[in-house]
Amino acid sequence: MKNNWKYQLLLILGAFIWGGAFVAQSAGMDYIGPWTFLCVRSYIAFVTLSFLMPLLDRIRNVNAPAGDAEKKYLLKGAFCCGAALCLASYFQQDGIQYTSVGKAGFLTTLYVVLVPVLSVFLGNRIRWNVWLAVLTAITGIYFLSVSEDFTLAFGDLMVLISSFLFAVQILSVDHFSPHTDSVRLSRLQFLFCGLLSTLPMLIFEEPSVERILAAAVPLLYAGVLSGGIAYTLQIVSQKNLEPALASIIMSLESVFAALCGFVILHQVLLPRELLGCALVFAGVLLAQMPEKKQTAV
Hints:
mainly alpha, 13 helices, globular
């Protein structure tokens, strides 16, 4: 049954886990650098989804790709999506060191607005509500991130860049997933993300087993819960919910990020920043309004 309340609760739980991941990412920076965090969490997410793959296959009633051509296409798609995910996640991870968890959550969610805007380069038209969403979101960014001397904070800028890159990653997934298994595509993109972040980690940072173990809790949360469990909840729930409702519920991760930042890290947003958050969230909701279908006379 579509829009069953049980699946709504499961997806809300997934959004809550994603919101909490911003706290985990912020806490992890106390021990290791952004490349190290990204690298290790990606491998953990890959292993978690590999472990959950049999369950997900039974839920979706699908089998592994059989032909060589399909496997090659899956690897090609996973590499492209993984490269975009690697860049997006790095900018987010680096930027979260210099901004609050709540601001990072709302700024990241802007990918919902950016996806339809970027899709115009793929030949899609932009509906009126998307233009209104862009205007509302830009106004929100001003109140959220731009200071009185009209400068954009470095951390907020990094997260905004990551939001743009996440939109590119989503469009990449949208391009490859119709022709291959989306769950396997996601699993392998985590593998390529880990591989691509390994070299920068070794060049620009000094990872050590002691520091990684010190960041074990944030890493396990980001890799197992955010990368594996929450993704599984999304797969199970979206199958039983209307797309528009599912998108709105998933965008709640920004609200949960702000709440978790306040409760756990005691990060308080100023009234001006709260207004910006509200406008950004309104822009996200506007961008997800379904297009009205014309009925025949």
